[in-house]
Design a protein that fits this description.
The protein is mostly beta strands. The protein is 5% helix and 40% strand. The protein folds into 2 domains: 30 residues, no CATH class; 334 residues, TolB, C-terminal domain (Neuraminidase).
């Protein structure tokens, strides 16, 4: 009855497209390969074996990083289980944390050979069926969870006025140790601090020129692909379906457009840029309960989308303009982060995906 009711609300063409998508879904136990060109992947939905959630419950899986010894750290927003540690084979090693109810961002940094994590609590969190907003914070910890320091609130250093909201989503660490904080659920500035937490300045915001603004600045990364001396800052503008590039001092440089894809944080590995897509403008998926229209995107060093695992194949016209991206295979609900493993495999974390663990994508030789 529910499916019949849903399909009746679609156009004939849209309904037919969705039915064909369902028919194309793989049989249980059959391999499903997604992606395009040289970036194709075998889907492993049961990467985390059944039963582990009994001792390591989750709500949303937000971001993941891999440390040098191979372990994977993932931040989430369960009320007393916010940091999960995995082996690369999906075994959960440990889980802990009850001080980041809005756990959202996780960034790895290295100082003199020692690794640290920057945890971003967005300040947005749930308890039961109720949702709450409070001020966010960014904390530096070691790999055992010991707190090193937390960054000061922007208002306390003169960066914000009292009415400006601070709900940060992500951090990035420059080669000199400077810390860039994306206030993506708050006032949409990128705040810059030095390695000791001293405030240095801010840039961005959503009130600037339309082609330079940051609106829902969900993620931030330091792009070192052209060398340390040419490092730049990539900032997500999710509402605008793009990434904005700035100098380290905050001067606007260019926009990398991903039309149709409301992307999360930029993740750079090798010469490629990876990102989870939380929503697309897919007209069929948007009518489904919960709007499960997510997938992932991979851009090359020129900013061209070369693969969209879980999405339809990217298409550029004769003028080099990318057609709006849409959902493809029914794999992801809302892609939130992509962790690129050393061997090229991907682990995709999801938001609002029925409290499911991350999905692994195993790279297929081209």
């Amino acid at each position: 009855m529910q499916r019949r009711h849903f399909l009746s609300g679609l156009t004939t063409a849209a309904a037919a497209t969705w039915v064909e998508t369902l028919r194309a879904a793989p049989e249980p136990g059959k391999d499903l390969v997604i992606g395009h060109g040289s970036h194709r992947y075998r889907v492993v939905k049961d990467w985390v074996a059944a039963g582990q959630g009994r001792h390591h419950p989750i709500l949303n899986c937000h971001e993941m990083v891999q440390v040098k010894d191979g372990r994977l750290f993932m931040i989430g927003d369960h009320w007393d289980n916010q940091m999960l540690l995995f082996q690369p084979n999906g075994t959960i090693l440990d889980s802990w944390g009850s001080v980041w109810p809005g756990g959202h961002g996780l960034t790895l940094s290295e100082e003199n050979g020692e690794e640290f994590l920057f945890v971003t609590d967005s300040g947005l969190w749930k308890s039961g069926t109720a949702a709450y907003r409070q001020t966010g914070r960014v904390t530096k910890i070691d790999l055992t969870g010991r707190e090193i320091f937390s960054l000061s609130h922007p208002m306390s250093v003169g960066a914000y006025e009292p009415e400006m909201v601070f709900n940060p989503t992500e951090t990035a660490i420059a080669p000199n140790g400077d810390i860039y904080v994306a206030d993506g659920y708050g006032s949409n500035f990128v705040l810059r601090y030095d390695h000791r937490g001293k405030f240095l300045g801010k840039f961005g915001g959503k009130d600037g020129p339309a082609d330079q603004r940051i609106s829902n600045g969900h993620g931030v990364a330091i792009d070192l692909r052209q060398g340390v001396d040419k490092a730049t800052v990539l900032v997500t503008s999710r509402v605008d379906q793009c990434f904005r590039r700035f100098t380290l001092d905050g001067a606007y440089l260019e926009t990398l457009s991903v039309p149709g894809a409301k992307v999360c944080r930029p993740v750079i590995a090798g010469q490629e840029l990876y990102a989870g897509v939380c929503w697309s403008n897919d007209p069929v998926a948007s009518k489904l309960p919960g709007n499960p229209s997510g997938f992932t995107v991979i851009l090359d060093a020129r900013g061209k989308v070369i693969s969209a695992p879980g999405g339809a194949e990217p298409h550029y016209d004769d003028q080099g303009v990318l057609a709006p991206l849409t959902k493809g295979e029914p794999v992801f609900d809302h892609g939130h982060d992509v962790c690129v493993l050393e061997n090229g495999d991907l682990v995709v974390c999801q938001w609002n995906a029925g409290q499911t663990y991350p999905i692994k994508l195993e790279r297929v030789a081209s």
